[in-house]
Here is the input.
Amino acid sequence: MEGRWLFYDDNDYRMGMAGVALASLKFDVKFYAFELMPNHGHFVLNGTGEQCMKVFSYLKRRFSEQLMKKGRAPLPEDYGCVLKPLPDKNALMAEILYVVRNPYEKGYCSPGGHRWGSSYLYFNELASALGGVKVSSLQTMQVRTITGSRETLPPDWLIHPDLGVLPCNFIDAGKVEELFESPKEYHTRLVKEYESAVKIARTLGEEVEFSQSEIRDIVNTELRASYPGRLFKSLSPEEKCRVAVRLYETMRLDTRMMAQALYLSELTIIQAIRSKDYGIH
Here is the structure.
């Protein structure tokens, strides 16, 4: 779900976290990962298509009500979402990595450092130290104020004074960790799996924003694959341009950043992209 601004302050995010928690209970779905961003949200969940759409409709209603409470316009009737089935384990892993990467990729935090989602739960020993107060030790009105709902929460769920309903209550981090061979594989793929991030972003109508160092890493990896054993200084401008065109075709990388990584002018790369000599028609 993406569009206009959804969350303006920490209280909005806390209510958003509560909404996701309540949706997991209300519609009996399992969330593997989710991240709340200022103007959109990403969710990876296990459920039928009907269940997933019920979750979306519920969250849309809650977010609209929260906006109206602050004197803002509700979400429009045609505010929609992209619902995408995940056919196998590899697709599930790639989608989880894409969702968890989103706050980092947008420049909000380091990998796994976002407060308003599940990214800090995976392979992180400090997550269990965050702690909170059990629902059973709070008064009913306190819980209703925190969740903005009369729906009840399990008595052993934890509430954090700043973050609200903690995602550890309804995210099975252990199940997600079982998908990956090790913490190292998880974190390496989280920051290095560039091409799959681009492919997933396209299916969602989004764009991936790479930094200059990431562009340089992508370019150097492609150069090594295309010209094994060759030193960078031995490559001709034409050979570098072929790599630039290929990366532009497959990943739509920024031409200025590619030019810096390849030590070519941006004009040279743009001309190569437009030239039939490099496979662009």
